[in-house]
Amino acid sequence: MKILRLIPSILIVLGLAACASPLVQPAQGIQISQSAPGKALTATPTAQQIRTQPPPGTPIPIAAPKTNLPIPAGSSVPQQITPASQNIPTLGPDGWKDLPIIPTVSATALQIYQRGLESGEDPHAFSKVGDCGSTPSWFLGDFDRGPRYYSLGEYTDLEGVIQQYQGSFGRTSLAARAGFNASSVFAPIWADRTQCAADETPLACEYRIHRPSIALITLGTNDVWHQDTFEGQMRAIIEFSIQKGVLPVLATKADNDEGDGSINATIARLAQEYDIPLWNYWRAV
């Protein structure tokens, strides 16, 4: 959870808007139709969506550990995580705006994180999942370039956090690319063929190669074109991460391209439902 303490000191290096691409990246199972020349591609959901929305409270199984490490005696780590929406007050339409910038890490999040470590995930690694706003030149990259390139001001104790995750700040994630939306990370066509298997998705490839214990999920700007599929795909990202033993940290986006804040409202609601951290970047901006 140390990475969460770093967020207040890095807001100045973040872009105020994500980089959009004229190409809307569809997920596998989405039909692509070409618009008139010069216009963006459009995607129409088919009956075989990546994920349909499960009923609230549906248990999410966590993959069994890939090592022979025993679970410590008295451990409260469950074999499955159940979304906690039934125990959390429902947010109003604009309730997400008042959520804290830096979240309190819940017992559920700690359990996901601990289970990941027991499965062999790297406590010194985190991954970025997003669009070009999640690439090193826009997001966190200077923390791997040395103290000449950043100033912590009064937050000097965060130098230990930087050392803890050295190598992840400036790394180009296989699940972060210009134009990505929540569907793109499940589309093998957008995976790096020099590092990923033929049928491997960008998200699965990133988790397999980097073995992060935490993932910063910064998506939503490029989902404005297909809001009908956004929630289902975000659920798929959350559940896939949990199954892999990776703690997903969601983030609201700075823009309001959809006009009514509904994408941020969905992100915040999912974070509460699954009891995982939400970085309210919109409020910080």
Description:
- The protein has helices spanning about 1-5, 105-120, 160-165, 200-210, 225-245, 260-275, 280-285, and strands at about 30-35, 40-45, 60, 80, 120-130, 210-220, 245-250, 280.
- The protein is an alpha/beta fold.
- The chain has one domain (about 1-15, about 25-30, about 55-65, about 80-285): 3-Layer(aba) Sandwich (Rossmann fold), CATH 3.40.50.
- The protein has a four-stranded parallel sheet with strand order 5-6-7-8.
- The chain is globular, with a radius of gyration of 18 Å.
- Residues about 5-20 and about 20-80 have low confidence and may be disordered.
Provide keyphrases for this structure.
single chain, 285 residues, Rossmann fold, four-stranded parallel sheet
Spell the H/E element sequence: HEEEEHEHHEHEHEH
Mean pLDDT, as a whole number?
A: 77
Oligomeric nature of the chains = single chain
Q: Please report the number of helical segments.
A: 7
- Poorly predicted regions are 6-18, 20-79
Main sheet characteristics:
4 strands, parallel
CATH topology: Rossmann fold
CA distance, first residue to last residue: 22 Å
CATH class equals Alpha Beta
Can you describe this structure in just a few lines?
By secondary structure, this protein is of the alpha/beta class. 23% of the residues lie in helices and 12% in strands.
